[in-house]
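sry for the spam today, last one i promise. struct tokens for design, 223 residues
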């Protein structure tokens, strides 16, 4: 089975570094504009892009935040999937107005604000700098478009239609998409599994990559 990792808003495929080196043959998808090309303005448009990369494969989709919304959209589109892993995401994604304002007015400040919100309070400052620097590699208009797409995303009334095997992972200290978002997905998606990783924030796959990879390995082994 092919594993496709889908990054979140303003990010790039390198956020999956610790996963692609661990899961041989896996692919980290580069969404348009991240950093090459032009970004999209809706989750549906991004989902169409990823759908073309799936081709005839029946992959395991692993989506983080906006990437999780894209994965939900594909699953609801009756795309044949081997399984679904939703990381730090929700059936509905609301964005703090402060984030949008900072991105518009001072992108560097916005990137640093977003980076600080992406980890737990105990995170290494080096990780915060790395996330901020990665955000700065993406053009401001692309990151803004991503967060607008997230803010408009709402599938709360449909996620119960997802029938494929699903793992839901969340950092216990996630402030961007608090664990109640993951708990809602777990309640609505029949047969889903929920793993909450202590000491991790929104970027759980970076901050606690060993624990995150172990959760994926256990889930993959059960398929």
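last one done:
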């Amino acid at each position: 089975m092919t594993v496709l990792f889908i990054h979140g808003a303003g990010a790039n495929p390198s956020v999956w570094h610790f996963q692609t080196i661990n899961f041989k043959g896996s692919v980290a998808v580069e969404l348009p504009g991240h950093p090459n090309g032009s970004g999209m303005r809706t989750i549906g448009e991004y989902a169409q892009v990823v759908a073309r990369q799936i081709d005839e494969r029946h992959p395991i989709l692993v989506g983080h935040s906006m990437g999780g919304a894209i994965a939900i959209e594909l699953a609801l589109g009756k795309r044949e999937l081997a399984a679904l892993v939703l990381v730090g995401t929700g059936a509905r994604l609301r964005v703090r107005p402060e984030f949008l304002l900072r991105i518009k007015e001072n992108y560097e400040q916005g990137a640093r604000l977003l980076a600080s919100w992406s980890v737990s309070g105990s995170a290494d400052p080096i990780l915060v700098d790395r996330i901020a620097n990665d955000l700065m590699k993406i053009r401001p208009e692309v990151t803004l478009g991503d967060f607008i797409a997230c803010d408009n995303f709402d599938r709360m009334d449909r996620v119960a239609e997802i029938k494929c095997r699903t793992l839901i992972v969340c950092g216990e200290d996630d402030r961007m998409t608090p664990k109640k978002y993951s708990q809602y997905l777990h309640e609505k998606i029949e047969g889903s599994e929920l793993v909450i990783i202590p000491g991790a924030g929104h970027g759980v796959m970076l901050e606690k990559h060993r624990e995150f990879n172990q959760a994926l390995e256990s889930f993959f082994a059960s398929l």
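The chain has a mean pLDDT of 96. ok im logging off now
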